[in-house]
Amino acid sequence: MDISMLREFVILADNLNFSATAKQLYISQPVLSRHIQLLEKELGIPLLIRDSHSVRPTKSGRLLARRLKRILLELDRALEEANQLDADIESRLNIGYLIIASDSFLPELCHRFHIAHSGVHLSLHALEIDEIMEGVSQGSLDIGYTTIVDGVIPNGLCSLPLVQEQYGVIVHTSHRLASFDTITIPDLQPYPVLIANREVMSSASHAARQFLKQGKVDLDIREEMNDIGSVKPFLLSTGGAAFSVSHAIAYFGAEYTFVPIEADDETAPVIAAIWKKSHESELLLSFIELLEQTVSTD
């Protein structure tokens, strides 16, 4: 089985867009499509559901993509450790990041760090909130960038708050709620509300349910958000609203808007860097210092 095809599938399962994935991988869209078809044939299971408007993973495809992320992360780490034995590399940092939490500063940060430490290899891994927490806690990641949704991080981890977030919903600009500056939780009652799938993002799903309970109304909650790519098809097909943090709107076009939700709960999510106190090193602390400088100048 070709590992590169597995990597392509994992990235496609995140993006849910053949064109964007092919561009990211520097291959043509027909080549990517052919690779996915070959992978499905070799595995003997359908991985994606395709139609004229969208692409989304099957249940088997979603499970495989989630497991493959962790397997490929461990494989990359093993290969890096093996290569480091023979390569003239000063050191390396394994970085896990939540796409919506890191895109605004991570590219510039990596550029600055490379200038200051050209011999250090940065290994980047796009993961979900729970996977980042687990990776940092277990030591497979040196540092992670994620959204802390409940204000609590595991014992032994340090955190550096970077950007204050706000809870709200993402809706199409034609939606009735799009004309409001802010809404309350009861305003959502007439519409299906998309939240994170607990099997994929258990902490985000739990935080969403806890927050929405404040409204003391029965909501039509759909626990079907597997990634950013799954939001648009839901909004277009149901006329609903997607519960989200404010920063996520950067991944939607001008035809979508973010509407903040007023609530009694003052525990707001925050984008933060997390790392294990016992794994601090001069190199990691230098990286964190550059992170603070990069975010402060954004």
Quick synopsis:
The protein is of the alpha/beta class and 298 residues long. The protein has 3 domains: 3-64, Orthogonal Bundle (Arc Repressor Mutant, subunit A); 89-164 and 270-297, Periplasmic binding protein-like II (D-Maltodextrin-Binding Protein, domain 2); 167-262, D-Maltodextrin-Binding Protein, domain 2, CATH 3.40.190.290.
List keywords for this structure.
single chain, 298 residues, alpha/beta, Arc Repressor Mutant, subunit A, D-Maltodextrin-Binding Protein, domain 2, 6-stranded mixed beta sheet, 5-stranded mixed beta sheet, 10 helices
List the topology elements.
Blueprint: H1 3-15, H2 18-25, H3 29-43, E1 48-50, E2 55-57, H4 59-86, E3 91-97, H5 99-102, H6 106-116, E4 120-126, H7 129-138, E5 143-148, E6 157-164, E7 167-172, E8 183-184, E9 192-196, H8 202-212, E10 220-225, H9 231-238, E11 241-245, E12 256-262, E13 270-276, H10 282-297
Parallel strand pairs: 3-4, 3-5, 8-12, 9-10, 9-11
Antiparallel strand pairs: 1-2, 5-13, 6-13, 7-11, 7-12
Task: Give the SSE order as H and E letters.
Answer: HHHEEHEHHEHEEEEEHEHEEEH
What's the architecture of the largest domain, going by CATH? Answer: 3-Layer(aba) Sandwich
Using the alpha-carbon principal axes, give the shape. globular
Per DSSP, what share of the residues sits in E-state strands of 2 or more residues?
15-25%
Counted up, domains total 3
Count of distinct strands: 13
What's the CATH class label of the largest domain?
A: Alpha Beta
Report the CATH superfamily of the largest domain.
Periplasmic binding protein-like II
**N/C terminus separation:** 43 Å
pLDDT < 50 runs, ≥5 residues: none
CATH topology of the largest domain: D-Maltodextrin-Binding Protein, domain 2
What's the overall average pLDDT, rounded?
86
Oligomer: single chain
Radius of gyration: 20 Å
